[in-house]
Specification:
The chain has about 475 residues and is an alpha+beta fold. Among the domains are: about 105-175; about 190-255 and about 265-365 and about 465-470, no CATH class; about 370-445, no CATH class. It contains 16 helices and ten strands. Strands 5-6-4-3-7-10 form a six-stranded mixed sheet. A two-stranded antiparallel sheet has the order 1-2. α8 crosses α9 (about 165-170).
């Protein structure tokens, strides 16, 4: 360290007198005198306290203060002060090291790459749906990587970095321990009917793995053919909206800078597409020869029904605000086009076809629903009759309007329909209780329009459980 200048020596002398343990007087009568030459006085008058202080000067003051207080307390005070003024942890550590406040290298100074790995591990764990991550897991990860990096065998149960230190690491990396309010819906909030259907949905695929094309999990994934004599091709459907910014070809610039484009303005395109679990292609489309055969058999494929389709496919596009929105009628037209094209896809011959569809009202709309009926005679009724299969799989027809008598031509209402079906209902039963009882009857367990349309073409529709879009592969 270079020798102190005369001005520095005078400053140190004054500080020693002011903070000397032998002099506790704080009155204004205390007088300090220093012998200052004319040259020193000139230099003091020219001293500009706005100039940046040298690290060596700060280190000298720090060494002086160390003689009157604990080094740890002094370092903590400086550390917290710098952090208060938003100085980063790394810059603070570097500053303390330069002035002598940091004794030796920290753990992460020796293993900087381990700090990066530990931080990445913490970020991944904090983003998991399960809220089970603790500093102990971080300490275990660091301990394991420490022995792997040094290629040594662990001989005791002690951790190389304590849990308390790992907790401080998390704070330093910007993590916080706060109320777990953003929990996934399916953890502890399932409706009984949703839970029942979800279990049924998952077990259906777990119990039939030999029916589907799958991908191997090795370093170079390859398609694995199903072992079933008549394999199944799984297709996944979804709609997505893509927004474009209001981008002009020319605009004013200042200093060659411009803000990002806004996604909330401009035209938007909605796409309804199908993802295919088959080696031929991830998306469904025909080649030109297959398309010509399909058009020859179904000439109406060339008709303009107001929907924009991709070439040789059933992929539909809609410009929001210009074209019709994808409601149930549009979805039915798109799926019917798909069903017509499927039989001409050569790679799909001798396969069963199953399609996963979101459980949205756009897809699950029915010809009639129990909620569309009124309770009493003469109230609302969406259909004139209901056709259904009884417990013996015999076709039954239930008339929904009175065919004779004083109420001829009027709707029967749910109360009269329940009596015809043989349900023991009281005259004063509530509408909700009546709907619940009738919903268990086959007459009101009707399929959706989409399911009925698919069945006519030999295709199976499987609805995703409600509120579980993550179970639809196309959502990924």
């Amino acid at each position: 360290m270079p020798p102190k200048s005369r001005r520095q020596s005078h400053s140190v002398s004054a500080i020693k007198k002011r903070w000397s343990s032998e002099n506790h007087s704080s009155s204004d009568d205390s007088v300090y005198s220093m012998d200052i030459s004319d040259d020193d006085e000139f230099n003091l008058n020219d001293l500009n306290f706005k100039d940046k202080m040298k690290i060596s000067d700060i280190a000298d003051i720090y060494e002086l203060c160390k003689g009157y207080c604990n080094t740890r307390y002094l370092s903590v005070l400086i550390y917290l002060t710098l952090r208060h003024f938003n100085v980063s942890c790394r810059d603070t550590d570097a500053f303390l090291k330069m002035i002598g406040g940091k004794q030796g290298n920290s753990f992460y100074d020796v293993y900087p790459e381990l700090e990066e790995e530990a931080r990445a591990f913490a970020v991944i764990q904090c983003n998991q749906k399960a809220a089970s991550f603790t500093p102990y897991e971080l300490a275990q990860f660091i301990d394991k990587r420490y022995y792997e990096i040094n290629d040594i065998q662990k001989t005791d149960t002690n951790l190389v970095r304590s849990i308390k230190s790992c907790r401080l690491d998390l704070r330093r990396w910007g993590a916080r321990f706060d109320t777990n309010s953003n929990r996934p819906y399916f953890e502890g909030h399932d409706r009984p009917d949703v839970l029942e259907y979800r279990n049924k949905f998952i077990h259906y695929f777990l119990n039939n793995p030999v029916n589907y094309y799958t991908v191997s999990f090795d370093e170079h994934p390859t398609w694995k053919k199903p072992k079933s004599p008549k394999p199944t091709i799984l297709m996944c459907h979804d709609e997505s909206t893509f927004r474009s910014g209001d981008v002009r070809q020319r605009r004013w610039f200042i200093d060659n800078s411009a803000p990002f484009f806004s996604k909330g303005h401009g035209r938007s395109v909605m796409v309804s597409d199908f993802l295919v679990q088959h080696p031929s292609s991830p998306f469904f489309h025909l080649n030109e020869r297959e398309w010509m055969k399909a058009v020859e058999h179904y000439p109406d494929l060339l008709n303009d029904n107001g929907i924009r389709y991709g070439k040789y496919s059933a992929t539909a596009f809609a410009h929001l605000g210009v074209d019709a929105y994808f409601d149930n009628s549009v979805i039915l037209l798109q799926f019917e086009r798909l069903f017509k094209l499927l039989k001409f896809k050569e790679e799909y011959q001798h396969h069963n076809i199953e399609i996963l569809v979101d459980n949205a009202t756009t897809h699950t709309a029915k010809n009639y629903s129990i909620n569309d009926f009124g309770k009493r005679s003469g109230t609302r009724c969406p259909v004139s009759s209901i056709e259904y299969l009884n417990d013996n799989d015999e076709m039954q027809i239930l008339e929904c309007y009175c065919q004779s008598g004083p109420k001829k031509g009027q709707s029967k209402g749910l109360l009269s329909i329940a009596m015809e079906l043989g349900l023991p209902v009281a005259p004063n039963i509530t509408l909700d209780e009546l709907k619940l009882a009738l919903s268990k009857q086959r007459a009101f367990q009707n399929s959706s329009k989409l399911e009925n349309l698919a069945a006519a073409y030999g295709v199976t529709i499987i609805f995703i459980p409600k509120f579980h879009c993550e179970l639809n592969p196309i959502e990924g």
